[in-house]
Design brief:
- This protein is of the alpha+beta class and about 525 residues long.
- The chain has 13 helices and 24 strands.
- Strands 15, 16, 17, 18, 19, 20 and 21 form a 7-stranded mixed β-sheet that branches. It has a 5-stranded mixed β-sheet with strand order 12-11-10-13-14. A 4-stranded antiparallel β-sheet has the order 4-5-1-6.
- It starts with 14 loop residues before the first helix and ends in a 10-residue tail after the last helix.
Length: about 525
Amino acid sequence: MNAVTVKNKYPLPHIDILFDQLGGATVFSKIDLRSGYHQIKVREEDIPKTAFSTRYGLYEYLVMSFGLTNAPAFFMYLMNSVFMNELDKFVVVFIDDILVYSKNEKEHEEHLRIVLSRLREHKLYAKFSKCAFWLKEVAFLGHILSAKGVAVDPNKVEDVLNWKQPQTVTQIRSFLGLAGYYRRFIKDFSKIAKPMTALTQKNAKFAWSPKCEEAFGTLKKLLTSAPILAQPDITKPFDVYCDASGSGLGCVLMQEGRVIAYASCQLRKYEVNYPTHDLELLAVVYALKKWRHYLLGNTCHVYIDHKSLKYIFTQPELNMRQRRWLELIKDYDLEVHYHPGKANVVADALSHLVTQAEEQVKFIHSNLRRAQSRQKSYSDKRRRPLTFEDDDHVYLRVSPMKGVHRFGVKGKLAPRYVGPFKITEQCGPVAYRLELPPHLAAVHDVFHVSQLKKCLRVPEEVIDTSQIQIQPDLTYQEQPIKILDQKQRATRRRTINFYKVQWSNHSEEEATWEQEEFLRTKYPGFLPSTSN
């Protein structure tokens, strides 16, 4: 069922972004819904689509089942709709997990009353054993949230700490994937894990070395001592530390001496030629753009290791690039301070990380170009351009809607075409206008080339449009017309009747076996009535 379901593109929120709104919160409550998906009913006409067979009979889901491809996205949409007025104020929602946060206990009491009333109003039920109220520190989405900030949940990393030495490449990937969820808490995570990552590369020989053992132990140790990242408070000034090197920029956002976020980027080709003064100024501009949702409208102190930037606002002569950047900087309430390079260790390290990875990036680009060239040469040899001329005759593809189920096996019926129709003109490189008969006036007469087939005058591939009713969406309904044969299949509990049915617009060779129950339900009156 998931394979034929149109995917729901409703976005799921990023966990890191959800935590940004918790600044200043001191009281927390966590609510977990009881079997969340099962609280949503399936639309009446879609219930038969969820049918599944067991040895006790055929069953259908009346509520949304776990495992459906669109279940998380639809449930996220439902929860956002329920708490639309409370989101980003005192409620965080991630699928079926609800977090209520407040600055003090008095506010929290009112917030809890509002949230619980919303759940009662929409008949959503929580599992009390998984709920926790009036907490100073709460475990939520694999993190520990408190007034101090965000930390790693020790219970979640317990599996990592108890992980035995990997014996296969698959086990290494599993370990790195689990530990990598908390990589933003570990400085130089990629550098530490490099010996283990090398074993996961293609055609790499698996050989557990002392370096791998050291990296394995170091990651475990760092997870137990991961730092707490502070939550931003927009009512207080921010500190931004910036640095630039010959190949990258590095910035750190801090508040009251605590790190809030890190950022770094690689220089573009034309930026490599900038003088040092302009590179340092570019790092400031990059930081302001990166964290403008924090800094715009708030006071911030920018620390750089280039003394001349302190006087950027009073310099009499500026080039066009500097003037453009200065216009952007003037939108912010900031003060520039000189910070010696030796003291600016964190941002300096970030700016030089790009240099260390430059060779790997070049190697990746080379492999991508080589793979692209190989794929292009392979495709060009086998691609046949599909073009038509004016006055050519083509068949138009249509989609039958019969809904026949054949025990999980696809039908043998080939795609059908209507026509032929005459091409009147070409509309762009991949579209053509057709001369349609009057009974297809409701259908738009311009079609993509993929919907057309050159007329080769093969009668058995063509459906006469006068015998079927074409819908505006180019579909038609097939009907059973004749019973060719009958058989029975005995199970432990009952006997099932099957009929070999010939369908409209198809020959007897294309007949299919269908269950009696399906035919009586879908096409009442087709089978003769039976006396009880």
